């Protein structure tokens, strides 16, 4: 009987009007569902890294720590009192709708999937294990652009089994998005009253408090601090409880990787693996989970990047059974997360999708003055570390100076904006003018040596000098500036569907990190760290 209803309903809502087609399918699904690194943090005292020829330590490979991350001994966790918030699944003001898992039409063996914001045809095809030309839709499908949010896709079922398809957490509570713009990390930690509020640690020569560590990791990796805090509470109890087992000082999350011990480095690894899951799912390249007991699992094809990120991080430090209990038992991680911070879907409904329909890059200029000779030394590579997409470009001044010195050349602002961060050889410019790095368009420059302090909060006009390119920070072997983009806290790849464009030069991906081209009006500049004539680029007047 249900098959007859499905088929007849599909005929009724199909037709030339794609809006009513999508609307009808949404209503039908709702009724059926109940039944069915230039920049990777390094230790400066490791001499074996001095001759590394990469500009970024981990940009040429993904993180692989499966054999080095034993599960920590379970501890007692003190859960806070629940925060009473009414769940909201839809906001007419922002156009936000909580994603629904795809529905399987058993009669035709087709998945009926509604595209999520940020989906591309290539990525969806990889997740569902089909070729892009096997996917059909009543609306036009594009290989180069984002799919329309809510666009109906019919996808052949090539998967034997789909498990753990529940969508757990919105993307906006995984990346450092507008939902965390006003979240006061230090205030929350102190009010929680746990050991984290008194923790101190030496990080690269500076004593940092627990709140400073969470802030640093959140900003640099663009990972939501709420999620980092909840994972720390789940694994060690430090947010609300006392220190407990002192063995956890070196491994509060449970990675236990040599040379990456202590809260800071464990949180860096946590942020990295969250990014691997999030951005790997965005592109469709991360489709399986590997557990500590040797088991593996294909990720359900219809979940969102945020859920894939959460599944990924917990798979790195759990057996499959521990992972299942943490994520899918009624009193598991999401219960803890909601009790600490309220319903994340309410926050998501207030801001709408992170990647809105019709998103376009603002006008950006090459990061140096017109007429100067620079080399395009690094094509698309990791924006921050192995947990970020290939969204960064590298440029080196052609000045004849010795390699790896702070150059006399100036890096200039690619657009008007407000400097939100200028420390540790990193400078970030907020382009929407609200002064928050979590909202709108943001440019992040790395290896910058500034000539003055106190730049945060200062308005800067396009083409204004920012600082000098150098080898400082990361593992660079040549003087250059690294530039990457974020929107609403999400790192953006440098290629399609939203290519990085600087002074009209359009970035094209290469097969590997650091490879690629810039193209403009039929001219092509190829990335090359050696700086040959083929990589020379001069910004026009």
How would you concisely characterize the structure shown here?
By secondary structure, the chain is α+β, with helices and mostly antiparallel strands. The chain contains eleven helices and 25 strands. It has helices at residues 2-13, 18-32, 121-127, 185-192, 210-221, 225-236, 263-283, 305-316, 320-328, 333-341, 344-351; strands at residues 90-91, 96-97, 103-105, 110-114, 152-156, 200-203, 206-209, 288-290, 296-298, 373-382, 390-397, 411-412, 417-423, 426-430, 441-446, 448-449, 459-460, 465-469, 481-487, 490-491, 501-502, 505-509, 516-520, 523-526, 536-538.
Instruction: Count every helix, treating DSSP H or I runs of 4 or more residues as helices.
Output: 11
What structural class should be given to the helix and strand makeup?
alpha+beta
Termini separation: 70 Å
Mean pLDDT metric? 85
Notes on the protein architecture:
It is a single chain. This protein is of the alpha+beta class and 541 residues long. The chain folds into 3 domains: 89 residues, no CATH class; 210 residues, no CATH class; 166 residues, Glucose Permease (Domain IIA), CATH 2.70.70. Helices cover 23% and strands 20% of the residues. Strands 10, 11, 13, 14, 15, 17, 19, 20 and 25 form a 9-stranded antiparallel β-sheet that branches. Strands 21-22-23-24 form a 4-stranded antiparallel β-sheet, with no helix packed on it. A hairpin with a 2-residue loop joins strand 13 and strand 14. The protein is globular.
